[in-house]
Design a protein that fits this description.
236 residues; Rossmann fold; 5-stranded parallel β-sheet; 5 strands
Length: 236
């Protein structure tokens, strides 16, 4: 291999890495989430059931990547520090590696702050400012999305309105969607179900159950607070 060919391959490699990095940034996989994969979701001595959960999420990911959208929604709920964000990000990671674009990992409180920022006076004169349409298009039209921590901000009419439209659109179009909660949205816990309905409304919740691939209870102890877990690192 000649010097010019080596330089061209090196340049192409750098361009590919830059493109990959930008895709991760656009998707929201930044910081620790950039490295959240199925491979480094490690076994835990204090919660062996975590690996069974990983297998269930992997099954969903495989179905989505082969474009089986018969049941395109996945619901996580349960304790903090049990890996909900890590495994949700792992699905996005796999999709990006498979060449998917327009995949988004959005933390609900942060997403709402972005929306609220679009109401600032004088913003229309800033050429680099996001518009409300730019932001809402992500959740409504993204090829695959995660909405993380849906019940982490107090529900209002504003939050319900901003959530109903994109979720209803995704339901109608059968678009792959992952939602994470701390409360249990299933019928087994009526008090928590009613609380979740305060966030997204009963109609949306019923539609989620109708098209859910799986509803997974992350009922283990917090990884961050446990000293018994094996080496590794998980997100929220």
């Amino acid at each position: 291999m000649g010097q010019q060919e080596r330089e061209e391959k090196t340049l192409q490699w750098r361009l590919d890495q830059l493109k990959r990095k930008r895709m991760f940034e656009a998707s929201g996989l930044v910081g620790r989430l950039e490295f959240a994969t199925f491979q480094n979701f490690v076994p835990r001595a204090d919660w062996p059931e975590a690996m069974q959960i990983k297998q269930r999420v992997t099954a969903y990911c495989e179905a989505v990547l082969r474009e089986d959208f018969s049941r395109p929604w996945l619901i996580f709920y349960g304790n903090y520090g049990t890996g909900k964000s890590h495994l949700a990000a792992s699905v996005i990671h796999q999709a990006i590696e498979a060449g998917w674009s327009e995949t988004y990992f959005r933390v609900w409180p942060e997403y709402l702050r972005r929306l609220e920022a679009t109401f600032s006076p004088g913003l229309e004169y800033r050429l680099d400012a996001e518009t409300r349409a730019d932001i809402t298009r992500e959740l409504g039209e993204g090829r695959l999305i995660v909405i993380d921590d849906l019940d982490k901000r107090r529900p209002t009419q504003f939050t319900r309105d901003e959530l109903y439209e994109p979720l209803n659109r995704r339901y109608v179009k059968s678009l792959p969607t992952i939602l994470t909660f701390n409360l249990d949205p299933t019928f087994e816990d009526q008090k928590a179900k009613l609380a979740i309905e305060e966030y997204i409304g009963p109609a949306v919740l019923d539609r989620i159950f109708e098209v859910a691939f799986d509803l997974i209870d992350f009922d283990g102890p917090s990884f961050r607070g446990s000293q018994l877990a094996m080496t590794g690192e998980e997100s929220r």
